[in-house]
Amino acid sequence: MSEFSASNVIWTSRVHDAFGSVVELEDEQGNVSYYSVEKEFDVAGGSYAVLRAESGANAEPEIFKIISGQDGVLELVTIDDDDEWENVTELYDELTFPE
């Protein structure tokens, strides 16, 4: 059984508890976007948040990795590892659209 399976998911609310139901993210160019927090979970030693852009009715959800900064403040970062990205997105699809 893969570590990235629905049976290993622990639902969390750290991002929601820290920032509320809408988070503000700034990209490298300083552009600010607002996202609704849809789901948060821990699995396979990682923590993840599923966010949906506030702009655009058909915006696809985006998955970010949750990390604790040096000062303990939560940060949302993109998932750079291709295998981790694939595992997390497949798991999210499985959780969202069970067969």
Written description of the protein model:
The chain is α+β, with helices and mostly antiparallel strands and 99 residues long. The protein has one domain. It contains two helices and six strands, in the order βαβββββα. Strands 1, 2, 3, 4, 5 and 6 form a six-stranded antiparallel sheet that branches. It is globular, with a radius of gyration of 14 Å. 18% of the residues are buried. The model has no long low-confidence stretch (mean pLDDT 91). This is DUF1292 domain-containing protein. InterPro entries: UPF0473. Pfam families: DUF1292.
Give a quick summary of the entry.
The chain is of the alpha+beta class. It has helices at residues 14-19, 82-96; strands at residues 10-11, 22-26, 32-43, 46-53, 61-68, 74-77.
